[in-house]
């Protein structure tokens, strides 16, 4: 398997993009990534597109060919593959693109992710998102995503003493980071009291514990490391790519306060990269709900199990802390267009490793990690990137 | 890239499977394939699942993890990836699984395809299928899939003299083949007059020109060729795997009587396999409508452009002809559970190459081809298999 690097990146502004359709968003970001990499259409060997639910959100499947078409590549007839693993669809597209280059089957490959979520009512959107859980054994009985994560939060609080305030600190930190990110959906700073007094969604989770409904797209261009310097002055190496699965339904898990898919994917990724969690300077993790970030920083090995809440409270995951987590603002403040999130995470890590992250730049960042979760943990993807 | 072989196969009965859910169908076929290959769960490195629209048909996304879960593999946390390219999703799963093994990243990989289509009304199903076309520029203006293929048929008839009877001959042949296939949805033989007098769908296509709405699943197990004989007495080599894309909308095509995606994928596949169309003994091609098979046998290079109709009429694509096309009954008579079709095609070719196809066995078949199309030709996949 060959070494693979990221030679170009693009990301749209995240938010309610009512003036842009799904195809507009992905073409906007694709052009940005191609220009950043300085490649021509003719050089591109394949596309991988992460999208969770074009079928439900915009009544469009066959997203791979659609994107190749609207990117002006259909005349070249290049292979274009859509992959889906719910909210981890973007991370999965990055992994499949990585494997295509690593295997030697392709040289220049684009991994993109997109979701257009605001063309439907919030009820329809919530129902579409619920299709990431087990429809027959969870949703049919009334479970929604906030409810599933609320059950996880309750048990985590009871077993480990995680507090309501510590959950809120995740949102406060991510809004602080996000307000320095030009593409973020929200640029408002918030306080712990704002979170605790915001409307209840599923006890103990409140509206400011939840990531929003978002339109957006992101893209990265991959190449074999040995030719990456032809395209980029600062190619970023992908040191590891790992994927793991788990039961879709929470009730089939060994323990709902740990996402085993994250644990397995992280172990594989650290082994591939020959690194440990202590080596990671920056991480974009899957904070679909505030409890999600606490699980992530524990399950990835940054902090012992049960100590994610206190670590957050002590600022150890803020810019300047032990590991800067979600400098983009995370899913919470940057926004969560589900199919795009995994690629946006890579976009942010590349910006940081290049030293192009502006006001939120982490000084001397050398190694970064992305962590993208599907559903309540049925799928997890972990990538490790290096300057 | 390593040589890859198919060491196990499974396929459910196709039809209206009201007693089986999506997960039931894919587990049924997965167990059959694993038993056929004689592998254990622990040996499996990865799953690739083709599914077009679980979101629309059964309100379930995150199909990869769901299948790993219900196959009893979630405790092993193996990677499971859903891919989608409309009606070519199955062929795409086969290709991604092939690349995973060929690249050396994985050894034993399962490629499966599934669609559960009869839980919704036929109107909802037709609308879900229309998501394979360009929603904004075709469906919005009233186009349905039969209408798109009807336009292709009309121009093909006008330009090349293809007759109404020749279209019907495709259905007659495929029903004849299908009535010998135990898994087929239909076991009725039909005559040319039956087709011509069947209810009109989109002129000139009538109901017996159209593939049906079907539930079903199929799976194949892949391994590196150098260890395939440990598992199977008759491993079948995958000599080539190729994928190509084209514009989603018909009106953006160079010529609607040729599917350029098929032409490009076939060229790549024949080059990889170092073979020509004349070397193919059996082929499973994408006859979603009767005109689809005529396009396919021309675009794959079996017959010159415009001569697909006459070749069919002369029996050159029947069992015993130049190339036996759709011995399974094709999409028309065997059925078309869209995400499963590409894998069922490989299942049929493997049965034939093993000499296990019963009454419809093609004598001395050595090389077979599968051809799977997404939408009206936005994606095409071609695989070449050898005994």
TrEMBL record, chains A, B:
What processes does the entry annotate via GO biological process terms? isoprenoid biosynthetic process
Q: Which UniProt keywords apply?
A: Isoprene biosynthesis
| Ranges where the Thiolase C-terminal domain occurs | 242-387
Looking at the record, the residues that make up the Thiolase N-terminal domain are 5-224
GO MF term (any one): acyltransferase activity, transferring groups other than amino-acyl groups
Under PANTHER family, the record lists:
ACETYL-COA C-ACETYLTRANSFERASE, ACETYL-COA C-ACYLTRANSFERASE
Any idea what this protein is called?
A: Thiolase
């Amino acid at each position: 398997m060959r070494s693979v690097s990221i030679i170009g990146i693009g990301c749209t502004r995240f938010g309610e993009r009512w003036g842009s359709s799904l195809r507009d968003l992905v073409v906007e970001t694709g052009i940005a990534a191609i220009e950043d990499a300085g490649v021509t259409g003719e050089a591109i060997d394949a596309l991988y597109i992460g999208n969770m639910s074009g079928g439900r959100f915009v009544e469009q499947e066959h997203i791979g060919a659609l994107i190749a078409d609207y990117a002006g590549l259909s005349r070249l007839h290049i292979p274009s593959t859509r992959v889906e693993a719910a909210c981890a669809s973007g991370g999965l597209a990055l992994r499949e693109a990585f494997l295509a280059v690593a295997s030697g089957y392709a040289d220049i490959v684009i991994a993109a992710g997109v979701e257009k979520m605001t063309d439907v009512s919030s009820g329809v959107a919530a129902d579409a998102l619920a299709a990431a859980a087990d429809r027959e054994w969870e949703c049919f009985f009334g479970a929604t995503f906030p409810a599933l994560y609320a059950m996880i939060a309750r048990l985590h609080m009871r077993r480990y003493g995680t507090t309501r305030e510590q959950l809120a600190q995740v949102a406060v930190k991510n809004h602080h980071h996000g307000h320095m990110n030009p593409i973020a959906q929200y640029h408002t700073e918030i306080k712990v009291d704002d979170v605790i007094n915001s409307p209840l969604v599923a006890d103990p989770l409140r509206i400011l514990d939840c990531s929003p409904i978002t339109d957006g797209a992101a893209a990265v261009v991959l190449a074999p490391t040995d030719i990456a310097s032809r395209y980029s002055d600062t190619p970023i190496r992908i040191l590891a790519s790992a994927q793991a699965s788990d039961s879709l339904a929470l009730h089939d898990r060994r323990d709902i306060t740990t996402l085993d898919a994250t644990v397995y994917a992280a172990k594989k990724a650290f082994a591939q990269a020959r690194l440990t969690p202590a080596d990671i300077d920056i991480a974009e993790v899957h904070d679909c709900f505030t409890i999600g970030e606490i699980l992530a920083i524990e399950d990835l090995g940054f902090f012992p199990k049960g100590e994610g809440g206190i670590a957050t409270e002590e600022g150890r995951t803020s810019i300047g802390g032990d590991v800067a987590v979600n400098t983009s603002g995370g899913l919470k403040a940057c926004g969560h267009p589900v199919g795009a999130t995994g690629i946006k995470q890579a976009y942010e890590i590349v910006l940081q490793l290049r030293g192009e992250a502006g006001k939120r730049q982490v000084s001397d960042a050398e190694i970064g990690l992305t962590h993208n979760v599907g559903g309540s943990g049925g799928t997890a993807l972990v990538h490790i990137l290096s300057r």
